[in-house]
Amino acid sequence: MFIDQVKIYVRAGDGGDGMVAFRREKFVPNGGPAGGDGGNGGDVVFEVDEGLRTLIDFRYQRRFKAERGEHGMSKSMHGRGADDLIIKVPQGTVVSDVDTGEVIADLVAHGQQAVIAKAGRGGRGNKRFATSANPAPELSENGEPGQERSIQLELKVLADVGLVGFPSVGKSTLLSVVSAARPKIAAYHFTTIVPNLGMVDTGDSRSFVMADLPGLIEGASQGVGLGHQFLRHIERTRVIVHVIDMSVSEGRDPYDDYLAINNELEQYNLRLMERPQIIVANKMDVEGADEQLEIFKGKLKEEIPIFPISAVTQTGLNPLLLTIADKLETTAEFPLDELLEKEEEETVLYKYQAEAPDFEITRDPDGTYVLSGEKLERLFAMTNFERDASIQRFSRQLRAMGVDDALRKRGAKDGETIRLFDFEFEFID
């Protein structure tokens, strides 16, 4: 089964908690702090595997969670960091965030990796908080929560050549006779409902990958028919082979078909018109096809190679395949080189992004002040509320962030309730 779009949930591992512990050593206050740090959690990493051709594995498992780091231990022993969770994906996988629509990674080369969800760091043990003023702190941190996100995986097939055209023009038949691929072939429209790939051997020690894409119809770029679901796959092909039915068996004009399909490609992505295009005049074994080809040539204004063939009788195929191979040799390796360079540039260039506020204050109908914010949530999660020293440190952090002043400006008075998640406390001015 061919699956080229799926939504999944990933969560990186939480960091391990730091520990409060003391060693027993003479002349050291309270034995001396000896609590170790927690280990870092594991990242969620996607890695390209050229042996995969579909996202079908994600249909059966849609939730992925990396391991958390080991907790800190006594005797100043740190917890072990968790291993990264490596998830294999096929070449041409585009990873984007469901909530924001941001493209996280575009994975095109075998072995290429991308961190999709970042792990939380391990919490510090009490040994890290020792100072000359407080040589024996009873203070530690919980591990930082790992990043979690819902993501969408979109597969764009990587092929050298893409066959495009109206339904039933002979694309599947052509692929079946020039390669070992066995796409479904029948005498009705939209027989092909998934892209089919085949390796083509030209007979002169050259070969290339050809993709038979589902038939397009007018309005495909706006979502009409089945073809719009697979227009994305054409983006990654280096040469477009436009198959046209010269038998007029469907009652359509070949030149009108040619204009309609090119218009859909242009509407979907203007850059597709920059790709080299070869026209295949198919079904030349049918009576009247020669006359239609001459009419088509008379209407065609562009200088585009036209190859009359019959996929059924397998005539005219060799010149077509050799020309495609020649065209590929002079066409830049667009999919891999350009996309990898683009990704490298994006990691180097600075992009201005407005900083999110550290916290927000809202008010519930019952009058309770509610605190929220990403930074505030992280501090809350890393605070060990079982120890007074940790609670006092959290209170100081809130004050340093300006939470107290902001509450006063909102009208908070002594004794009023402040809520942070499930934790409630009284405001003291």
TrEMBL record:
Its EC number is 3.6.5.-. Residues 125-145 are annotated as: Disordered. Keywords: Cytoplasm, GTP-binding, Hydrolase, Magnesium, Metal-binding, Nucleotide-binding. Mg(2+) binds at residues 172, 192. One of its GO terms (biological process) is ribosome biogenesis. GTP binds at residues 165-172, 190-194, 212-215, 282-285, 310-312. GO terms for molecular function: GTP binding; GTPase activity; magnesium ion binding. It is an enzyme of class 3 (hydrolase). GO terms for cellular component: cytoplasm. Its main location: cytoplasm. Its cofactor is Mg(2+). Residues 1-158 form the Obg domain. Pfam families: DUF1967, GTP1_OBG, MMR_HSR1. InterPro entries: G_OBG, GTP-bd, GTP-bd_Obg/CgtA, GTP-bd_prot_GTP1/OBG_C_sf, GTP1-OBG_CS, GTP1_OBG_dom, GTP1_OBG_dom_sf, OBG_GTPase. Gene3D superfamilies: GTP-binding protein OBG, C-terminal domain, GTP1/OBG domain, P-loop containing nucleotide triphosphate hydrolases. Residues 159-329 form the OBG-type G domain. It comes from the Bacteria. It is found in: Cytoplasm. Residues 351-429 form the OCT domain. Belongs to the TRAFAC class OBG-HflX-like GTPase superfamily. OBG GTPase family. An essential GTPase which binds GTP, GDP and possibly (p)ppGpp with moderate affinity, with high nucleotide exchange rates and a fairly low GTP hydrolysis rate. Plays a role in control of the cell cycle, stress response, ribosome biogenesis and in those bacteria that undergo differentiation, in morphogenesis control. Monomer. This is GTPase Obg. The gene is obgE.
